[in-house]
Amino acid sequence: MQKAIIMNTLQIDSVLLDEALKMAKQKNIDLSQMVESFIRNFVERSAKPQGKSKITPYVSRLGIDLDLPADFDEREAYRKYLEEKYG
Asked: Which InterPro entries does this entry report, sorted A to Z (predicted)?
């Protein structure tokens, strides 16, 4: 993987930057990795066709495409699951 060097300066709110630095330290990654990960995730999500149900970041990290229909209702599916389980 090639690394690009950004010649422009990003302007970030100082409070937000402090919080991001704390989180990066807790996760044992540097801020550049955190920002790159966010941008990559944003670009990949933007490139996917719209209309699918939103998938949580955790499930997305699993690398599984659930291919849910556009009209999938999570609450209704959960209600049916509970109904079947506790009937």
From this structure: DUF6364
